[in-house]
Fold this sequence. Notes:
This protein is mostly helical. The chain contains three helices and no strands.
Amino acid sequence: xxxxxxxxxxxxxxxxxxxxxxxxxxxxxxxxxxxxxxxxxxxxxxxxxxxxxxxxxxxxxxxxxxxxxxxxx
Length: 73
């Protein structure tokens, strides 16, 4: 169980970082966003999409292990 707790902790930190990246991406101009997307790896979601995917993953894992967090998004 300790390994799972550590994983959830790191997943939470990863989710926080995706939130920061999403916020920074949203402040870019449309031309800058297009450039970022153009140079992203194939099939890489945008920071906005990635943020949503990671947070849903975190919420599902936390729900399964019984962790309840305040909504901060």
